UniProtKB/TrEMBL annotation:
Keywords: Membrane, Transmembrane, Transmembrane helix. This is Integral membrane protein (DUF2269). The chain crosses the membrane at residues 6-27, 47-72, 78-101, 113-136. It comes from the Bacteria.
Length: 142
């Protein structure tokens, strides 16, 4: 059973990180498009964010199951660091993407909003990669 949970955890990690790299070219193409194409790209962005969000939920659930059934206690330094970054990334996903996309429709300076969206994407990718490193390497931080 533990091996199955590890597999689910790894697949959910891939689904929580991988689609984020599709956001970057999509945002870039969104800069100079007509209204119909703009709506299509925004729909793609929303689907990617939703996929990442749900994969993140599965990642958290499978990670909790791994901690409950595995050899590492909750107070291990890499577990605590991962949980801290996970909380930060959850806040970042909700405020960094959803709120920015809502502003996109309301503001005339869409270029600035797309810059924020690109920066937010890179920051979120960075947070996810740090968590991935912590989960794979399992460093003793303190």
């Amino acid at each position: 059973m533990y091996g199955t949970i590890v597999f689910v955890h790894v697949v959910s990690a891939v689904l929580a990180i991988g689609p984020l790299f599709l956001l970057l070219p999509t945002i870039k193409r969104l800069r100079n498009v007509d209204l119909q194409t703009e709506n299509a790209y925004l729909t793609i962005i929303k689907v990617i964010i939703r996929l990442v969000m749900h994969a993140g939920h599965l990642l958290v659930l499978s990670g909790a199951l791994l901690l409950l059934t595995g050899p590492w206690p909750w107070n291990t330094s890499w577990v605590i660091a991962t949980l801290g970054i996970m909380l930060l990334s959850g806040f970042f996903l909700s405020s960094g993407f959803t709120k920015v996309l809502r502003k996109y429709y309301k503001h005339s300076s869409k270029g600035q909003i797309l810059n924020v969206l690109t920066r937010t994407t890179w920051i979120y990718i960075g947070l996810m990669l740090i968590m991935l490193w912590l989960m794979v390497q399992k460093p003793m931080l303190w």
